[in-house]
Structure formats: structure tokens, C-alpha cells
Amino acid sequence: MQQYHLYTARDFALDEYFQEWVLRPDVKNTYYWDTWLKLHPEKKNAVDTAIQLVRSIHFRDYQMTAAQKEQLWDNIWENIAADDMTGLSPAPAPVASRLRIFTWKYAAAVLLFVFLGTLWLFMRTQPFRTVTASVATQPGQTKRLLLPDSSEVLLNAGSRLLYTQKEPLVREVWLDGEAWFHVKHTKDNRSFIVHTYDHLSVEVLGTRFNVNNFGNKIAVVLQEGSIKLNITEQQDQHVTQLYLRPGEMLRYDKTDGEYSKSRTDAEKVTAWTHGQLVMDEYTVADAIQFMQQVFDRHVTVKDPRVLRYSVSGSMPIIYNADTMLMQFEKAFNVRFNKRDETNHVGEN
């Protein structure tokens, strides 16, 4: 483990991992250095100086001028001509000898043409560049977006998503909150991995699925295709792999690492993507969780028995906290009382 707390600005500038963060930032190294700086604020000046040092180093691409290219051609043909004349007598060369010379010159010209053509194609090919993008939603707000790889994402309220591709065949997303994904399948089978900042990640090739990473629970629901779940056991760090089929859900508890797989109605779970809240034996406790997740509105109850009140049906999701509270009041026949920015639930 590097003792970065002892580093000077010069030490940081010479450190490869530090250089990678400055020149090629991605989700992982940015998270590491942001966290490290919070723990070591006294090193901020040294880090800022080191960043300037790293960014001040530039590498200039070498390009030949037109005159240099012409000189190169002249040198090539002069060398060919000199080789042709070496060891030859003033008398005319035999036909076979002249034929060998012509064949050699022709082969040399063809090889040179092929080499220059290959070099031109190589220079025309753009090198792979790391791609990083991020987006966030406020409480009461959703966003539909296309990732750089053309995959579609609908980000629910109060959520954050970071996308990175630092290797040609690997696409990675880091999700805090809830999002619905329609992952684009690529011809070269690039993997697509959703990380949850916890011990669970979702790996897919092309599919539709929903990930809810709010609070202490993670719920992954598959609509279409297939996905592989990588779960790191909290006790021995062993990685367990599970596969989901369409219509299956995996629930993961962050507190103890327990998880379970079950059948579910994926269309109901993902109805929020169409602006509907499907309530299947929906309780007041579920409504409170919805208000906290989508609007960051905390609700308490006077009588815990009220939490068990339930309804079934559906209602439109209106991204306005007061309007949704009124809809829940009608659905559950309860009244939400606002007191010092905290909502209390009481019976009518």
C-alpha cells in the first residue's frame, strides 16, 4: 500500500496511479482520490501542484513535411539505383540479369507501397479513448438518456449514474438509486456491467432490466434477455454467480449480505417507467418508502398499525410531492399531517 500521506508534490507527479487519474480519469480512480483527499485535506496543495506538473508534460506527434517526404523518396530510389550498379561491368547486362534487377525493383516498389498504405491506414485509425459520462436526478425528477454506446437508460428520481468505458470490450455503469436499462448488444459482444457501490454487480450483453439500489436493499428485475449477477460474499469475499431469467427478481440485503431469487411480474415492477405506480397489496409502509425514495420526503406515523393498511390497484405517478400525498390519502383513507417538515399519518 502506497504511503501517499508522506508524498510530496513531486512524488505524486511521478506516481503512475496518480498520473492515470489526472490524464485518464474514470469512476474508480476518481472515487479513490476524492475519498483520499477528504481524509487528507492537508495534502490538497501538494496534490494541486502535482496535477499541474502532470498536465504540463506534453508529447508532440512527429509529422514529416512534404520536403522531408520527397527527400525520403529520393534516398530510397538512390539506394536502389546504387545497389543495381554494384558489381556490374560496362558491358550490357544479360537479359536474365536485367530481368532480375527489374523484378527486384518492382517488388521493392510494391512492398514500399504496401507498407506506406498500411501506415496510412494505421494513422487514419483513431486509437481507443476512455469514455466517461455522469448524470443525476433531483427528487421528483426523472431523466431518459442515451449512453455513449447507445444503450437507453431511464433514471428514477434522486438517483446518480456514472458510465465509463476504459477498455474496448468492457462497458461499466455505477448506479446509486434506481434505473431501467435497455442495453444495446454489440457485434463484438462487449460486456455491460452495472455496479451498485456494494457487493453486487449485474453483467449483461443485451437485455432489458431494472435495478433499484435505494436504502439497505437492492432489487434486480429482468424483463428480457439474460443477466449474470456477481455477488461478493461478505464473510470470505468469495464471488457467487447467479443467473436471472425473464420474470425473475433478486433481492439483496446490504446489511447482512443475504439474498433470494423469486418470480415476479416484471411489467408491474417497471411500470414506473411509463408513469404508473402499480400497487399489488400496497401498504402505507410502501407508500412511505415511495415518498422517501422519489421525493426525499420523510414520513412518520403516530400509530404503527396504520403501516399495515393496504390497497391494490394503480395510479399515475405525478412528480409533485403534495399531489402524490393527496393520492395516497385517497387510496388508503388516511390523512397526512405536516409538522415541522415531517409528515405524520393519522386516521380520518
From TrEMBL:
InterPro entries: FecR (IPR006860), Ferrdict_sens_TM (IPR012373)
Keywords for the protein's UniProt record, in alphabetical order: Membrane, Transmembrane, Transmembrane helix
Superkingdom of source: Bacteria
Domain FecR protein: 135-228
Organism: Chitinophaga ginsengisoli
Annotated protein name in UniProt: FecR family protein
Transmembrane annotation, as ranges: 106-123
GO molecular function, one term: sigma factor antagonist activity
